[in-house]
Design a protein that fits this description.
The complex is a heterodimer of chains A (201) and B (273). Chain A is mainly α and 201 residues long. Chain A has 2 domains: 81 residues, Orthogonal Bundle (Rna Polymerase Sigma Factor, Chain: A), CATH 1.10.1740; 85 residues, Arc Repressor Mutant, subunit A (Orthogonal Bundle). In chain A, 59% of the residues lie in helices and 0% in strands. Chain A has 8 helices and no strands. In chain A, helix 2 runs parallel beside helix 4, helix 4 packs parallel to helix 7 and helix 6 packs across helix 8. The longest helix of chain A is centred in the C-terminal third of the chain and has 22 residues. Chain B is an alpha+beta fold. Chain B folds into 2 domains: 52 residues, no CATH class; 144 residues, MucB/RseB, C-terminal domain (Phosphorylase Kinase, domain 1, 2-Layer Sandwich), CATH 3.30.200. In chain B, 45% of the residues lie in helices and 18% in strands. Chain B has 9 helices and 7 strands, in the order H-H-H-H-H-H-H-E-H-E-E-E-E-E-E-H. Chain B has a 7-stranded antiparallel β-sheet, sandwiched between helices. In chain B, helix 1 runs parallel beside helix 3. The chains are: A mainly alpha (201), B alpha+beta (273).
């Protein structure tokens, strides 16, 4: 029926308007959770497919955390499906020591308060080395710009847990950052011209 | 290390509050408390500096990814085109079946269920007039986010923004500085809603922009504030001091409600009845 088709088109149009603005956010989270671009693309497509199917149950809730919750579940399901040794399944914060000790926490001394600028590829690599629970916390906060409450909803933990994970994630990142200082990335690429200060937000 | 045992206890509790401070997650009372402690505690001051340095270093990098064009077109391709029957959802219950499979097959389905359960419709803009105004307000908000469109007068000083509107509007819109309450004043802009000039006062919370539209008459009035989400943007409307206020943002609903409360409270303080 033409009427029904138009109603579905209208529904798809509303979904497009609501969900597509967050495609970069979804892809960013997927990229950091899956740690490779092909898997990230598949996860995001699956996420949008599921979100479209459940769009009727979406009511006035903030779209970005809703989408990212679905995306995170898609990524976790994929990891569960694979359950291979080399894939990161360390979703517990009790045993983060299985990773390379690159980010071992050291007491930051006053003179290291300032951080040497690192190129984007190095920072991404540092974030990628964080154990999953800390990685997702820092990405949801710094890259996806979610509030503590929204992160708590996406991850399904209390706000207090979000806060302690974020604090821990930053301590690890800082330690890794300092450790990476001097050694430098092997794949340093030519720095693209930076946007004018303030233009990036 | 610290001067007294008392402060050391505070410091370990303070560590997480320092992050919350940097993340803009503290209310004004806690901000004052934490800042007062940091002012008198060297180790916490260093810790705070260290967190800020890390955030600054990360903020300078382009860590946010751009979705590849092919992914964008893959997703566009799965959306139905006009007048074609929707290929996914059918009325024979396959959606419910799929949902059960989804919940059964994935151990972390509870987080999603919780998120779905939390989706509450706050209110609905009744009547054609408010519906139309709400849509226009959202469009104006989206327009304002395009580069260079956000502010006509760019300043965090309320005493600069307020006079700027003089002569441009029939009313003098109240311009309130909410920086201490966690909403930064970015500036002002003249916009058009329903073919009438309206003032927009622009605030930011973290990276979220809030457009607060103010006009003498904009939409049908009702008791209290009402709101809903349109195209993923949260919208709130209320009337006060003979003016209509429309707040629009991609900020989450709770924080936008907090913004409405703070504006309203500040209006009352300025004009006690």
């Amino acid at each position: 029926m033409a009427g029904e088709g138009n109603a579905e088109y209208e529904r798809a149009r509303r979904f497009r308007d609501a969900a597509l603005p967050y495609l970069d956010d979804a892809y960013t989270l997927a990229r950091y959770l899956m740690r490779n671009t092909a898997d990230a693309e598949d996860a995001v497509q699956e996420c949008y497919l599921r979100a479209l199917r459940h769009f009727d149950s979406y009511r006035g809730h903030a779209m970005k955390p809703w989408l990212l919750t679905i995306l995170r579940n898609v990524c976790n399901a994929e990891f569960a499906r694979r359950s291979r040794h080399e894939t990161p399944t360390d979703w517990s914060e009790d045993d983060p020591k299985s990773e390379q000790p690159m980010w071992q926490e050291t007491q930051a001394s006053p003179e290291t308060a300032l951080l040497r600028a690192q190129d984007d590829a190095t920072i991404r690599r540092l974030v990628d080395t964080l154990p999953a629970v800390f990685r997702e916390a820092i990405v949801l906060r710094e890259m996806n710009d979610l509030s503590y409450q929204e992160i708590a909803e996406v991850v399904g933990v209390p706000v207090g847990t979000v806060m302690s994970r974020l604090a821990r994630a930053r301590a690890m990142l800082r330690a890794a950052w300092n450790a990476a200082d001097g050694s430098g990335p092997q794949t340093a690429r030519a720095a693209a011209p930076l946007p004018a200060p303030g233009a990036s937000s | 290390m610290s001067a007294s045992g008392n402060i050391t206890v505070n410091c370990s509790e303070n560590e997480i509050l320092l992050h919350a401070l940097v993340d803009g997650e503290l209310d004004a009372g806690h901000v004052r408390e934490v800042e007062a402690h940091v002012a008198g505690c060297r180790s916490c001051a260093q810790a705070l500096e260290s967190i800020r340095a890390l955030r600054h270093a990360m903020g300078g990098a382009r860590l946010k990814e751009q979705a590849p064009a092919q992914l964008r077109s893959r997703i566009a391709a799965m959306l139905p085109a006009r007048a074609s029957p929707f290929p996914v959802a059918t009325k024979d219950g396959s959606l419910a079946r799929w949902w059960r499979t989804f919940l059964g097959g994935f151990s972390i389905g509870t987080a999603l269920s919780a998120a779905l359960a939390a989706t509450v419709l706050i209110g609905v803009f009744r009547g054609d007039q408010n519906r139309q105004v709400a849509d226009e307000v959202v469009s104006a908000h989206i327009r304002s986010l395009q580069a260079g469109h956000l502010t006509d007068v760019q300043t965090s000083d309320q005493h600069t923004v307020k006079p700027w509107f003089n002569g441009k509007l029939d009313v003098a819109p109240p311009v309130i500085d909410l920086t201490a309450q966690g909403f930064t004043l970015l500036g002002g802009r003249l916009d058009y809603i329903d073919r009438e000039p309206v003032a927009s006062i622009i605030y930011a919370r973290r990276k979220h922009v809030i457009n607060l539209f103010v006009a003498q008459h904009l939409g049908a009035r009702h008791a209290g504030a009402v709101g809903e989400s349109i195209q993923g943007y949260n919208v709130r409307h209320w009337a006060e001091e003979g003016l209509d206020f429309w707040a629009v943002s991609d900020l989450n609903g709770d924080e936008l409600d907090e913004f409405v409360q703070k504006v309203s409270a500040a209006l009352h303080t300025a004009n006690p009845t």
